[in-house]
Amino acid sequence: ARKVTDKPSLLMCKTVIGFGSPNKAGTHDVHGAALGAAEVAATRERLGWKYAAFEIPQDIYAQWDAKEAGQAKEAVWNDKFAAYAKAFPEQAAEFKRRMNGELPADWKADAKAFVEKLQANPA
């Protein structure tokens, strides 16, 4: 996938849903439903997981902790967006509005006019 850069790549991985569950792995029973206490205990035993629920061993946590990398990437993004906002203030304001989940100032009037137009010309 890295060698071909002029088009998208599709990476396909075979997985087993509910991997590790001795009685439900690979079945629809594990999809969208809780395993239940007995099956969780059996899965923990099968996987050799000796930690409490929601406990992550420090060495695993350290390998997966992406806080510093995320903060660095966010800082780069913020710098790029600040430059963009200087060059394109209106578009940057529109982007911020949308990202904040705010509707346009005139949305009520526009929505009312649209509904009235539809009501005047029903299909």
Description of the structure:
By secondary structure, the protein is mostly helical. It has 2 domains: 53 residues, no CATH class; 54 residues, no CATH class. The chain is built from 5 helices and no strands. Helix 3 crosses helix 4.
Give a short overview.
The chain folds into 2 domains: 1-53, no CATH class; 67-120, no CATH class. It has 5 helices and no strands. It has helices at 37-47, 58-64, 67-87, 89-99, 107-120.
Question: What key phrases describe this protein's structure?
Answer:
123 residues, 0% strand, mainly alpha, single chain
Q: Please outline the major beta sheet.
A: none
For the secondary structure, the number of strands is 0
Helix content: 40-55%
Strand residues, percent: under 5%
Structural class: mainly alpha
SSE topology string: HHHHH
Q: Quote the distance from N terminus to C terminus.
A: 49 Å
- Taking all Cα atoms into account, the compactness measure Rg is 25 Å
The 3D shape can be described as extended
Number of domains: 2
Mean pLDDT, nearest integer?
A: 95
Helical element count? 5
Low-confidence stretches: none
Reconstruct the topology from this structure.
Layout: H1 37-47, H2 58-64, H3 67-87, H4 89-99, H5 107-120
Helix pairs in contact: 3-4
